[in-house]
Amino acid sequence: MSAQGPDPDPDTTPGLEPGGGVSPGDTPPDSGQTFATTHREPRQSRAMSAAWVVAVIVTVALVAGFFLAYLIVSLVNN
What we know:
This protein is mainly alpha-helical. The protein has a domain at 47-78. The protein has one helix at residues 47-77. It is elongated. It holds the Pfam family DUF6480. Keywords: Membrane, Transmembrane, Transmembrane helix.
């Protein structure tokens, strides 16, 4: 047994010409929509994204501090 698709049957759809075309100025029928879910989606936690922001800021600060310390040491030694 094969499942029926969401598109309307061309043999029983009014306004279609033979071969499946439509008359000039006429609009073809819409396909069925299968978009909605049957249950609510859980909300995404923002705690993980805040942790990533803090981790990135700390990493950038450490790298900038390393280069600043390297610059100071190289200026003092010359």
